Structure formats: C-alpha cells, structure tokens
Amino acid sequence: MTSAASFSEAISGLWAYWLIIVLMMVGLYIVIARDNLIKKVMGLNIFQAAAILFYVSMAKVEGGTAPIVPQDAGHGAGHGGHEILYSNPLPHVLMLTAIVVGVATTALALALAVRIHREYGTSEEDEAVAWDMEHG
To answer: Are 46 and 27 in contact (CB under 8 A)?
Structure first.
C-alpha cells in the first residue's frame, strides 16, 4: 500500500472532523469578513454549532452503550462475564448546557442588533461607527 493510499484512507475515515473544520472556518470567515451585525451573529452560531459537533463526535465511543447498569449485572460485568463498554454522558450534558447558553447569547446579540439598528438606522458596523464619530 502506498503512502498516498493510506493518506486517502485516513482522510476519508475522518470525514466528520473535516466537515466540522469546514463549518468552523465558514463561521469564523463570516464573523471576520462581514460588517452586518446580524450576519456576524449567524457566523458565531455556525462556529458554535461546529464546536458542539466536535465535542459530541469526540465523545462517541465505538461499541459503547448507555451508562445504565443492568440489575442482573455486577459493576461493569455484562452477560456471560464480558465487560460492558459504556459511553461517557458528561460531554453530551455539557453540550446541552452550551446549546442553552448559545440560544440565550444569540437572543441577547439579536436584541442588541435591533437596538443598534433603531438608534443608528443601520445594521452595518462601519456605518454605525462612522455615524457615531460624526454625531458623538
């Protein structure tokens, strides 16, 4: 097997991580390149979604089951004396918390964007700053 073939297999096996990287870069680009405040908030949401997907994909255990111990089993022992592989629920719980915080942050950012639009008559960051410099 050549190194190019093994590299290709490594890349294709990690397609979810490549998708996450693309989403992160798209979100970061929108935040940096756009002057519209609403678009900046949406870029932050895309970036946040990519970070949440990253943590959830890292927490997935191949062959793992829900961390519920059967009544007939001992500590970690499965049927027939085999060990049971459990998935760790903590990353998923933390990401649920991150989603709630993200929704609240988005609501606050959008409320501020609406207030800025009412005050300055625009949602463009550079126009609002220019207006503020002229009238400030």
So the answer is: yes
Domains and CATH numbers, the chain: 3-60+77-135 (1.10.287.3510)
pTM: 0.78
Q: How many CB atoms lie within 10 A of CB 50?
A: 19
Quick one: the chain helix, strand, coil %, rounded to 5? 70, 5, 25
Residue 124: partners with Cβ closer than 8 Å, 6 or more residues away: 35, 36, 37
**DSSP tag of 80:** G
d(CA 57, CA 29): 23
For residue 65, the cross-strand partners are 86
Mean per-residue pLDDT, 12-25: 89
Reduce the DSSP state of residue 82 to 3 states and report it.
Answer: coil
